[in-house]
Design goal:
The protein is mostly helical. The protein has one domain (14-228). 77% of the residues lie in helices and 0% in strands. It is built from 8 helices and no strands. Helix 3 runs antiparallel to helix 4, helix 6 (161-177) packs antiparallel against helix 7 (182-197) and helix 7 packs antiparallel against helix 8. The protein is elongated and about 60 Å long.
Amino acid sequence: MTADFTNPGTTLMTDLHRAGGLAALVCAATYIFGFAFLFAVLLPAGFGIDGAEAEATLAAIAGARGAVTLWYFVIYVVNALALAILAAALAERIAIASPALGRLTFGFGIVWTVLVLGAGMVMNVGLGRVLPLHEAGDPAALELWRVVDLVENGLGGGNEIAGGAWALALGIAGLVTGRLPKALCWGGLVIGASGLLTVLPGIGEVPGAVFGLGYIVWFLGAGVVLLRGRSARSGAPA
């Protein structure tokens, strides 16, 4: 027997939406943890971002290896796994009204998920290679770290194209189908535009801040919507 994914009353659909709601809250928690840990623990320890001296950053990482490893694991791996569930749940919700738009949003969501997970895997493997060299005083550690940092930034931190595209797609799809609250849709459009603006040189850190902090609020909102399980347009269970 094949499950009917277009029937909002199916147990499978309801379970997916609830899982997606919990996943959205996990995504918000990883962002909050990431920001809090960065400013409260890592930056005071000398960890650098955005062009900081590689030697100083490596020294800080070596002095707090466990904390840095945990930080990268949470903001990348945990976030990506939760993001995959959330992308599936929101896509199914949209697909009730428009299967094509549901598939489109899922595609953008999975692209972002893969990039975030890839960034986490790069850092996990990269730190395992770089830190022993650094501890041995090998100058090759600095060059290897620069490469690892460049790849990680390209995948998951240097710009926010993938996350911005997903937010835009969900915002548009939600407005067209009425399957998401308007506040969530318009928030997605603002976040998406901010994410795309991060590719422009010399624009400053404002778009990135709007993207990151905005997504915390958006994830929380998406979690509430999915856990309550009601359609924005009809008020029927979704």
